[in-house]
Write a structure and sequence with these properties.
By secondary structure, the chain is α+β, with helices and mostly antiparallel strands. The protein has one domain. Helix content is 38%, strand content 11%. It is built from three helices and two strands, in the order αβααβ. It has a two-stranded antiparallel sheet. It is elongated. The two termini are 23 Å apart. Keywords: Kinase, Transferase. One of its GO terms (molecular function) is kinase activity. InterPro entries: ATPase_NBD. This is XYLB kinase.
Length: 66
């Protein structure tokens, strides 16, 4: 929830251990094939579907003042 509130963005997860590492691996593969004009969408088309974990709390974008 904290990440969602801080960045005011929804957070998605996948049911895979070390999903952050998996995302980095997909970016690395994309970097390797970038010269062949393969899009990132094509690289990750077989990746597991993400699911919505949390959305920003209403009013979280407002900064509290002392």
């Amino acid at each position: 929830q904290v990440l969602s509130d801080v960045f005011n963005a929804p957070v998605y997860t996948i049911d895979t251990a070390n999903s952050a590492c998996l995302g980095s691996a997909y970016r690395a593969i994309h970097g390797l094939v970038a010269e062949t004009n393969v899009s990132l969408a094509d690289v990750v088309k077989l990746a597991p579907e993400p699911r919505l974990a949390v959305t920003p709390t209403t009013g979280a974008e407002e900064v509290s003042k002392p």
